[in-house]
Amino acid sequence: MSKENVELFVVGKPKQMDNSDSESEVLIIPFLEKLAKIFPQIPIKRVDERFTSKMAFQTMIDSGLKKKQRQNKALVDEISATIILQSYLYNK
To answer: CA 61 to CA 25: how far, in whole Å?
Structure first.
C-alpha cells in the first residue's frame, strides 16, 4: 500500500435475485470491518456482483479459452473482480 496511491477499495456485494444479501455476506462483513480499521482514511465502495461469474465465464469463452482453462476458479474470480471494478468506474 505504501507504494501505491490507493483512493478507495471496491468490494463486491453478493446479492440474491430478490436484492437481499446473499449468505456469503456474513463472511465479508468481518473482512470489511478489519479493512476499515487498518485503513480508516480509505473509503470502501460496494458493488453488486450478481452475474459477474457468468459474465466472466462468457468472456473466457469469447476469448477462445479451452474448457480446461475455463474451469480455473481463480481465473474466473480474477475476471469477475475486473468486471466489478469496471462496473464501479462506469457508474461513477
So the answer is: 29
**Model pTM above 0.85:** no
Q: Specify whether the CB–CB gap between 21 and 9 falls below 8 A.
A: no
Roughly what angle, to the nearest 10 degrees, separates helices 52-62 and 73-91? 110
Three-class DSSP labels, the chain:
CCCCCCCCEEEEECECCCCCECCCHHHHHHHHHHHHHHCCCCCEEEEECCCHHHHHHHHHHHCCCCHHHHCCHHHHHHHHHHHHHHHHHHHC
Count the neighbouring beta carbons within 10 Å of the beta carbon of residue 50: 15
d(CA 33, CA 20): 20
pLDDT tens digits, 15-74: 888 888 888 899 999 999 999 999 999 999 999 888 888 888 899 899 998 988 888 889
